[in-house]
Design brief:
Elements lengths: L1 H29 L10 H34 L6 H11 L1 H21 L6 H17 L12 H26 L8 H34 L9 H32 L5 H27 L6
Helix pairs in contact: 1-2, 1-5, 1-6, 1-9, 2-3, 2-4, 3-4, 4-5, 5-6, 6-7, 6-9, 7-8, 8-9
Amino acid sequence: MGAVAANWLQPLFAAVTNAALAIAVGIAVLRPVLQPAALSVAMLKRLTAIGRWACGLIGIALAAYWCASTIAMTDSQITDLPASLWLVLTQSHFGSMVWLAFAAWVLLTITTIAVKIPARHNLFVLGLIVFSLARAATGHAADDGFFSFSVFIHTAHILGATAWAGSVLLCVLLSGDWELWPLTQRVALAHRLSDVATWAWVVVVGSGLFNVARTLENASNIWASDYTWILLAKLCAVAIASGLGLRNRWHWMIRLDRDETKGAAGFRRVLIAELIVLLIVLAFAAKLGTTMPAQ
């Protein structure tokens, strides 16, 4: 039971958590061009529903990941799971991070449901940062301490990756009919997406190089580990996504700015391809977080 949880359930629920977190981060980083005054009633309702759905999925995925991790750590049977869950929650550092992630999720949920509370957007962003910190502190970065420099760098890596994937995902969800949008609104969303993806790429690459150096610096044979091959697959996927993003930025966005007939459609097609690759990246990242690094 423990092996199944470690090899399959943990990566699965970590990947779902990553995807749901990406949607929420995407909403936060695209917010400046998604102001209610610029959106139709239907689109505003769609955006609100996406935010609530993402927060709900984060909570479900967090609970499932906690259960899978508990089984992996304790090799518990189903009948012993309630006691093991409480033991992990109260007697381990991992449990402390679950509490922290839960508190962040509660904050996210409140800001999603109660739309008129003061500084709602700032509290939403705070919840995302705290949740990302808790995620980082349950991975390999926590080997240096749960509030170490490595954990902070990995938090930045998570936020960068989810900002990139989440902004692309949210744009795909919202742009199904964007040929009908006013040109200024369509251009504003495309340029904001491109700017966010560019800066997120810088953060992802910089923090990723630090993570690779820290994780593999003492390995005697890096090629003998599954971790290395999963990492290489992830890097290849990142390179493909980067190429697709450049294609959009330097070709289709120029045509979109000119309001050419095929500009918006071409931009969105490449965006969908980029999204598929980025979801694969998030899946590889989830698997890396539950795979033993090279020794």
